[in-house]
Structures are given as structure tokens and as C-alpha cells.
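#struct-pred

JT: dropping the chains for the assembly here, can someone run the whole complex?
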Amino acid sequence: EAGVTQFPSHSVIEKGQTVTLRCDPISGHDNLYWYRRVMGKEIKFLLHFVKESKQDESGMPNNRFLAERTGGTYSTLKVQPAELEDSGVYFCASSQGRNTIYFGEGSWLTVV
Amino acid sequence: AQSVAQPEDQVNVAEGNPLTVKCTYSVSGNPYLFWYVQYPNRGLQFLLKYITGDNLVKGSYGFEAEFNKSQTSFHLKKPSALVSDSALYFCAVRDIYGNNRLAFGKGNQVVVIP
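RK: done, full complex below.
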């Protein structure tokens, strides 16, 4: 069974550009989460989907970040326009209900 | 609010010696505790969890963790460390009846010396 998959694995973009990260959760998992770790700091929660609905988006840093989960399957996280402080690794995770949360390999974003 | 403290930045241990990575937590209700490991340039890999029941939980790769309610701790242990255990270890907690959001510690770099 495939785990949580994320694309791209690495991305280098210039300040002001747009990047879209994609996440495919484990098949059958209705809960999908985005977390990020910037500059060696703590892993921080961004938001949580239950199926296609945003259950909790209180961790989103500002309106430059937009997450969607159309149809309750895969999710995208768009950063527009990207800033230098957005550099870091963006983790997607999924779970079936309140069971164990499994993470993907991460999308490593560098904004130059 | 829930939070996790991992007091040490780096843990150095000789191969074959016992390994302990410390974690203390704070939640308003009952804790749901996790350990994840991140190998170099990889994602977060689930190691083990505690929900209820036996305070000693066993996980992947010979790791175990002991839940101590009175000390609000969930230290990760391995009796005999391997060089391949060198990685970044994260403790995480959530309120068992609250939202699904995990609060992570800052992580501990474990270096196993051959």
C-alpha cells in the first residue's frame, strides 16, 4: 500500500514567484494535514482537512497560503507570492479518523 | 494548549550502548503521545504511540517508550544503539479528546558513534 506521497520533493523558486505543492494521502484516509518546518525550527501545524472540508486552518501563517482538497482526495498547498521566510520543508500527513497520523517525505522549498 | 519539550539538542551515544531521548509534555486532558523519526533528507516516519493501557510501548526498529503520567514524560529508549539509528527524533502530543492537531517538540539529533 502506498504511503503519503508529495510532489515536488524539492523546489527552488525566486522571491515573488508561486509554488504549488501536491499531496496524495494514503488511500481511504479522510483526514489530511499540512505541517511545515522552517529554518530548523519546530514542526508547526498549518491546517487540517476532513474529506474536502477545512476542519482547522488556524495554523496558516497568512493569506499568501492557500490549501485546497477538491473532492476530498489529493490536496494542494499554494504559496503566492513566495517570500524568503517561506523556505523550509512542508509535510503532508493523513489519518483514518483519529488514528495514527502518517507523514509523507516532505516537499523541500527554497525561496531565493 | 498542548506542548512538548525535548530538552536536549543532540544526544551522542556509542554504538551498542543504551539510547534515551527525553520528552515531556503538557495537555489539558489525557495525552495521545507519539514518536517520529526523520532520517537524513527523508520524511517523518512513525515509530510508536501511546494511547492507553500498558505504560511501556514497543515500536519499530527495537525502540520503546515509557509513559509516566506523574512526570508527564514519554522518553524514547533503545537498549543497544546502532549507527543506523543516527537521525532526528521528534516527540509529539495531542489531546485524546481534542482536535487532531499534533504539537511537536523541537527534535533531538541522535548521533551514534561507531
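JT: nice. The CA atoms of residues 3 and 26 of chain B lie 5 Å apart. The two ends of chain B are 41 Å apart (CA to CA).
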